[in-house]
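Chapter summary example: a protein plus flavin mononucleotide.
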Amino acid sequence: MANRTKVFVPSDTTARSLGADSVAAAIAEEAQRRGANVEIVRNGSRGLYWLEPLVEVLVGDVRHAYGPVGPNDVASLFDAGFLVGTKHALALGPTERIDYLAKQQRLTFARVGVVDPLSIEDYRAHGGYRGLTNALSLTGEQIVATVTESGLRGRGGAAFPTGIKWKTVLGATADQKYVVCNADEGDSGTFADRMIMESDPFVLIEGMTIAGIAVGATKGFVYIRVEYPQAIRTLRAAIERANAAGFLGNDIRGSGREFHLQVREAAGAYICGEETSLLESLEGKRGMVRYRPPLPAIKGLFGKPTIINNVLSLSSVPVILDKGAKFYAGFGVGRSRGTITIQLAGNIKRGGLVELAFGKPLREILYDFGGGSATGRPIRAVQAGGPLGAYIHPKHFDTPFDYEQLAAVGAMVGHGGLVVFDDTVDMGEQARFAMEFCALESCGKCTPCRIGAVRGVEVIDKIRGGENGVANTALLRDLCDTMVTGSLCALGGMAPFPVLSVLNHFPEDLQARVGKPRAA
Ligand SMILES: Cc1cc2nc3c(=O)[nH]c(=O)nc-3n(C[C@H](O)[C@H](O)[C@H](O)COP(=O)(O)O)c2cc1C
Ligand code: SF4
C-alpha cells in the first residue's frame, strides 16, 4: 500500500511489562483518528531495556528510535511528525547509531529486535536459513569440524567445546539420537535465552536442525523454563511455521534429511537446568542429578546419545555455518572465541543485553554500556555467572571478560549475567544468600550439598552474630572446601564460590552485624 509507514513496537516480555501493548494500541488509535497510514510491526526488543518501550519508525530504509514511550506520549509524537523521523523530546535518532547498540558486535543477536519474530520470510530476508542450506550440502563430519574450528564453547555455563560434544554424539551408534536444548535459564540476572526465543525463534530452530543433521539425530526437544509462557508460545508457533515451510519434518527442503522438534515446559526448579537433571525431568521423572559417566553424549535422553546445549550455543551455530568457522573465530581472545552476550542487571543504570567479542574489560561493560549504578552510588560488587558465581571486587574490574581471565581472579563467565550492587550492599547477607539458595535448591542426592548448605547458613549466622568469629570462619572455609571437592554436581560444588569471594574480598561485612546496619 502506498505511503504506509512501518512502526515497530516490541512485543517481548520485558517491553510488554513496561507497557508496550498499550503503546501499540495508542499508536493504532491515534493513527486511525488522524487518518495516518500506519503498519504496526511487533518486533522483539533491541535489548536496550532502559529505553523500553522503544518505538521505531522506518523512514526510507533507516529506523528512527523514540523511547521510552508511554501511551500518553503518542499524541505528541504524532504532532511532532514522528512518522517522518522528526525531533521530539523522546527522539533517539537512527536506532543503529545509538551508542549502546552501535558499539556492540551482534552475531547471535543480529536479527533480534530487527525482525518480526514469527515471519519466516523476514527471517530469510535477514540471512536466516543460509547456515542450514550450507549444512545440507556437507557431511556430518564436516559440520562438526566447522563448529569445532569456530572455537564455540557452551554458553550455558560450563564452557565445554561444542564441537567436541557433537563429535562424541556423531561417533556413537544408536537407532535413535536426540538434540536437547537447555532453555531453563535459571541464573540470576539472565534473560538472553528468553530474548532469542521471543524475538528470533527461528535462529534456535535452525541451530538445532543443523545439530540434528550433523550427528544423525532426528528428534529434538526444547526444555523451556515454565516461567517463560511467552517464549513457550512463540517457539511453538515458530516450530509450526517451520514445519509448514519444510524447514522441519520428514524431508527438510527436499534434502531427504529428517528433523522433528517439540517444546517441553520445565519443572520450575533450578537444578533442572543441570543437564542430567534436565534429562530426568524430560523423561517425566523428578529432577535429580545422574552420576557420570556415562555422559549424556553416549547415554542421554531415554538412554540414547544426546546433544544437550544451551539456547545461545545452538543459536550461534547458524552464523558459523553461514559465514564460516574462521569468521566466528576471528572475534574474541585466547581460547574464548566469538561473542558473548552479557546481560546487565541489578543496580545498573542502563540494564539490557550487550553482545561483544570476548575480551572487553569488565569496567567498560559496567560504565560505558551500563552507565554505572542506577542509584548513582559507587559499584561495590558484581556477581558474574549466576548464583554460583563469585562476587567480583572493584579491584578486579579491569579484568577482560573472557573465560580464562575471569577464572584467574576466581570469577566466571557462566551464562553472561552480571548482577550489580552499589556500596549499600551487605556482602555478609549475600554470602548467606548463596548458602541459603543452595539449601533450597539442592536435589538432595549427595550429603556435602544437602547437609552442607544448611550448616553453611547456620555458621554464617553465628559469625554475623558475633559467636566465635575466628573459629567459625575457619569452620566455614573447611565446609566450603568439603562442598567444592565432595559434591556430585556444580550446585553444591560451586555454591561456596560466592561465599569464599566474600571471605576473601569483603571480610569486613562478615563481622558481627548485630545492631550495626550498613549505612545507606
Ligand atoms: C545447578 C545447575 C544449573 C544449571 N542451569 C542451566 C540452565 O538454566 N541453562 C543452561 O543452559 N545450562 C545450565 N546448566 C549447565 C548445564 O548443566 C550444561 O552444562 C549445559 O546445558 C550444556 O550446554 P552448553 O554446553 O551449550 O553450555 C546448569 C548447571 C548446573 C550445575
Ligand atoms: S550437589 Fe546438590 S544438587 Fe548436585 S547432586 Fe549433590 S545434592 Fe544434588
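Key point: The CA atoms of residues 128 and 189 lie 29 Å apart.
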